[in-house]
Amino acid sequence: MCIRDRDWIDPFGKIFVRLLKLVAVPLVLFSIIVGVASLGDVKKLGSIGWKTLGMYLVTTVFAVTLGLTIVNLWKPGEQVSDEFRLEKRVDYELWKEETGAKDLDGECYSCKPENASVLAKVKQEREETVLDAGVQERIDNAKKTKNASPLQPLVDAIPSNLFGALTEMKMLQIIFFAIFFAVMLLKLPKTQFKPVFDVVNGLNEVFVKMVWAIMNAMPYFVFALMAGQVVKVAGNDITKLGDLFTFLLHYSGAVLLGLFILIFLVYPGLVSLIVKKITGRKFLGGMKAAQLTAFSTSSSVATLPVTMDCVENKLGVSERTTSFVLPIGATVNMDGTSLYQAVAVVAMAQLHMVDLTFSQQLIIVLTASLASIGAAAIPSAGLVLMIMVLGSVGLDGAWIALIIPVDRILDMVRTVTNVTGDGAVSTIIANAEGELEVPDNKE
Fold first, then answer.
1. Is position 349 within any domain?
2. Backbone φ, ψ for residue 436 (5° rounding)
3. Contact 218, 385 (CB under 8 A)
4. pLDDT per residue over 192-230, tens digit each?
5. Using CA atoms, how far apart are residues 58 and 331, in angstroms rounded to an integer?
6. Is the CB of residue 308 less than 8 Å from the CB of residue 31?
7. Do 378 and 385 touch, CB atoms closer than 8 A?
């Protein structure tokens, strides 16, 4: 397939993603309002809300811990030649000189005479290197938040302009407004509550119908999306140094191992253990369509309509629970992203001959878990968060340039992980709330 052929196929995949995003944002807004208002009792909102956030936090911390365990056992950054690692270490030393960053392990390679020639060579290469525009943009975005207050995420969750939040797809702000609106709606007298609720519920149903219309054409759109991506990757110059290729291969393997453990073992096992009526196999069968869409779009938000359909109609979760738990999960539950960040940071530290202590790795657990909350549920958003996690343990944010060549594929799989985790948590919450009616259909 030549580039000209791709120009006739790839746009249909882009149209698919745009259509999903078109309906996803208003669907989140109206479905949360309907879901919260349908509870009928603010106290019940508190119960399901704490259970939901608690489950999401537990799975996220577990995912980061799993990632750290795998990367410390696999050691992908140590699978390359010592010469290559030494050059990377000197590159790290140069960065410390330029920024005044502290030594993490007391080693000063740049002070050793035998490293002087390597130091000069790397410095020259560093000055001649021009970062890819996309990489530079991500680094610049991260620098803007470097000196932000620790409570800045809390401030960012409060919208100053609803229409701006909707336009820019700021999901935490949309969710905050939706919950705030629904809680105030519950406080209205029944005579005033009903007409407002009927309007919002009607709008929600309209967007659900739009989702169904898009889903009818999904097989064709997904084919176009995947075909365009395959041609795009195949058309790139992927000739790389052997050591760098080896590192990327081992790093990708470590990330994929962790993600597959979550997708095929942890989530199905958790559901079958807590929800006796659903086996792990039935759970995975019910989530199949959502996983395919997540893999194709690399966006939890774009996949949200499909996830809601799978969880509600295949697994038997009530519409009320689905409308509340899943939109929140699409924003705050980024298990795949958190695991990938943990693996990437430690792997890149290993490559640069930097040994992270146990306490520093605990900081990675905390930072990756908190950074994943409110992460933009769009393709490759984790790369921006990666810079924050690297900075939390005093490492160079520009290291993300090393892993960008394989990030697209990993992003697709970690989105599948995020969506599968959302489905597992919503099923468990529905079971705890007595709002789970498992269909009789066999998967």
1. yes
2. -125, 120
3. no
4. 989 999 999 899 888 878 877 776 776 676 666 556 555
5. 15
6. yes
7. no
